[in-house]
Amino acid sequence: MIRLSRLLAIFAAAAVLSVATSAPAFAGPGDKAVDDIRTLSADDMQGRAPGTPGSEKARAYILSRFAQIGLSPIGDKFEQSFEFAKRDGTKVQGTNLVARIKGTKPGKAMVVSAHYDHLGVRNGEIYNGADDNASGVAGLLAVAEAFKAKPPRHDVIFAVVDAEESGLRGAKAFAAAPPVPLESIALDVNFDMLSKNAKNELYVSGASPFPFLKPILVKVAATAPVTLKLGHDTDADGKQNNWTNQSDHYAFGEKGVPWVYFGVEDHPEYHKPTDDFATVPQDFFKRSVATVIQASLALEKNLNDVAKASGR
Length: 312
Known about the structure:
Elements: H1 13-16, H2 31-40, H3 53-69, E1 72-73, E2 79-85, E3 91-101, E4 109-115, E5 120-122, E6 125-127, H4 130-149, E7 155-161, H5 169-176, E8 185-191, E9 201-205, H6 214-223, E10 227-230, H7 249-254, E11 259-263, H8 282-301, H9 303-310
Parallel strand pairs: 4-7, 4-8, 8-11, 9-10
Antiparallel strand pairs: 1-3, 2-3, 3-7, 5-6, 9-11
């Protein structure tokens, strides 16, 4: 995730390793997601920087999971390449991975997005990006499994995008040349940092700019396995705490597509080499994955109402 500034008060590193809940270990969906985050944040992925062998290896793993789940491409392949320039002028090729589960009825589509890139290797240290954003990709794959088990009424497009850390490049490339007509996309559901919060809290942003989403999200929050809090989508607590433009959903918002964004607040491992799988509280992560599955199913179920309310 791209955050404009750190929160003034962040949790102690030791606290992140525990989950602030007295509930027993979560037994719902998420076991495969734990394997996904472990694999994507391993040292041999080399931090998944765009245009690197580590990025290529991460893509190969994600594509293998697409195949296991039974996802189909839009067109003849999953890969959608784009090029961008780094600050020093160096050209880099990024690659988005895009799949679809067709709905039982034609019409609007919902995009589920998460970026798979991270910071790579810097000064000899690997920035594995377990929370940022192997966790979001694992959540997306879990959502894909849920929709495959229970086919949606509307098309659901899964966009695993590259180069978020370089300025939302992959999401912007997707939104600039979407694989389906832009007007058919009724909503983007974005995951970025789902796995670490000592207070058992996951945030969902989007209800303030798109108030028609609030009843759906409030209903999900009432029964979610984590404490799901609405917020971080206004300047009420300062611009630095408004997440509207701080992850891939912003690229969709710029094109007029409503969005919701799920993520945790900053923690001591954010953009540090210590953002490893070993620092992921697995019970909270499983609850977080179950929550985004629940929310995604609810949002897709209400997609026609969302489209009407937004004028799409």
